[in-house]
Amino acid sequence: MCNRYSNLTTLVNEVLEERLSRELREQVYFYHTSAFENRAQGIITQKYPDQVHLVKWSAKHANARSEKIFDTWPFKSSIFDKRCIIPATGFYEHRKVMEGKQEVNYPYYIQVKDGDEHKAFFIAGVCGVWDNVPSWAMLTTDANEMMRYIHNGGNHPFRMPVILTKEEAMNWLDPTLKRSDIENFTKPYPCDGMIAHSIAKGFIGKNATPDSQNTVMPFDHQHADIQPVLKGLDFVKSMQ
Q1: What distance in Å separates the CA atoms of residue 8 and residue 18, rounded to the nearest whole number?
Q2: Which listed residue, 9, 115, 210, 218, has the most CB atoms within 10 A of its CB?
């Protein structure tokens, strides 16, 4: 399940900044947020593509599987005319490792890169009024090779968010898209455009202190099954 992400001022998103009022600025940037926090996040919607709106991420409907989105409530009511984009600079997942008979989770922070530079991006989403509450959900798709290594456990393993570039994000909001057009957006983001590093335990989770800088700081667990840094295509080649 993909339910945690970041949006940092260190990687300013031009599309977001163009639509961001001074009053909203402090509310849409954070080190870490999750669907389980009672907090609204900044999204850009299909109906109002020139504005940023604060809408709470639905804990009940946090993820929308892209393969089933046209047939699953409540997403099927939103996919054609209530799409949205979520500005982000990274997201979080855990890798499951067996230690004896116990399953232990180690967290990773994952980012998009262009060459050696990290960059802001968007996550594809849908929004609506579900269970009488204005909400949004992020689309997920099959994990690429690097994300299959990281997200190997939990109730919905081997998944990742649908990641969009700036150009793709604006097209995602196009009201004229047909089903086949929408499906073309939901392919896994390529490994060679991603990088990840392990972070310390205890800073993300139900009992963790939210929005701490520690959630993005690299931490080497000195564990044979936890690679501290994963550089997309280089990682894939090393596993072949």
Answers
A1: 16
A2: 210
